Amino acid sequence: MVLWRTLVEIKLRETWNDRIRFNRSGLLIILLELVTLISIFVGMRVFLNDVGHGLKSEGDLVALAALTLPITFGNGYLLAERMLFGFKARVDRLIVRHPQEIIKATVVTAYLANLRPTLQTPTLMALALARIWFPHWQLELWVLYFLITLIGTGLALLVLLVVKRFFLRLSGLLLIVTPFLQIAGLAVALWLGTTLVKGKRVKVWASLNWPELIWWIPILLVAGGVILYMGLKSAALWEKAFLEQEERGTGRLGKKQTEFILKLLSVFRLPAPVQAVILKEWLFLWRNPLTTIRILAWLILSLLPLINSWLGAMVNSLSPLIPTFAIWYFCFGELIATAYQAEGRRVGLLWLAAIAPGQLATGKFLAYLPLTFFAGVTAGLMNGVIGLKGPAALLSIVFSIIGTTVGLALSLVPAGLTMNKVDYAGSSLTDMAMEQVPLTFYSLLSAVMMGGILVTFYFIVSLTPWPEAVLGAVVAGILGVAMTGLFLKRRYSL
Fold this sequence. Notes:
Transmembrane segments: 27-48, 60-80, 119-136, 142-163, 170-193, 213-232, 295-315, 321-340, 365-386, 392-418, 439-463, 469-488
Helix content: over 70%
Distance between the termini: 37 Å
Strand content: under 5%
Keywords: Membrane, Transmembrane, Transmembrane helix
């Protein structure tokens, strides 16, 4: 049977083939890592030349390096979730005798991935500072470089196994929160690094009275060993959670809810194939946890100007369409850009149902059309912040719906070119979340095009009479749906 070393080699070989051998995207990643290294050491060196007084305690460098922990935890959690609960985990379980071998391979693979310079920015910044002010502590900081990463990776694995086994409802939330942990860790590190470069100490860190750097190494070594030991001994938790996932399958709507949607669609007297496309889209959007997160993000961002006076004052100086389009694009722009990319293997269902390209284009457009009403609600809230009333307020709501509708119709044109280009083989939360992330050139083009259309529409309604703007928007929307159906004829194949 396969041992963990062989499994690690297989994972690394897969990454090599996917990123570099058969795809040149890996070269961009390597370039990004090199740029990160050069930017940190050269950039901070330039700033440090202007500083006359350095820090008095190396404990501040430990605090800076410790911010690597949330970054490596977030990345390690996402990698471990994909490896242990993704589609390929089934194959790993078949070729390995003991579950502990898979856990070991996951830890090693995630640990190696977390050693990338972009994920080690806080520690590298601490090393750059130590080179000038504490040159005798550089070796200890290099030890922390590997120790903190080990703790972050092991902690991510342990949290993942416990959550998947005992707190499954939190799994989707953590999948969304962990990227924000990475962003927050990097943001705080940049802020703290710029503060320390100026030779200043942060009051919070100064009051904590951090121990000397040499004492952190045995402390973190023991902590890392304990966390890693507990993670490796939790292999039984993974096996039980994985088997439960296989038995449970993906989330789906109940029979009564599906019947309600069918009755709702029948009211509009749409052709049966178009209704089928709309139903399929809504079912798959419902099962995806990222859809719920997008709606919650939209609600929070729309209400923030009402709660926060500073944001309210900023919105008050703008047209209500600007924050409305910005919030709507941030929350739902990617969702529309991946409308066709997300089909994957599901394109076979459309073939079996004998759905024509024009019917598919119409169904997709109508399925995502309700998203435009979110823009209308946001515009109403922005009107309340600005104090806009009467016909002007109603007109801004109408324009927000029309503008997003035009953006939807036209951005679906390049999105349709991604049909049958991405294959989603798994049903884990990570796989489902990736369905709403642009992965191809045309889906990225669709997302960029959506933003450009919203900006263009804002200037058009600001500079031209509104009846002409509405008429032009209607014509553009119809042409967008027609062009999408035309392009699908070339891409609509198994």
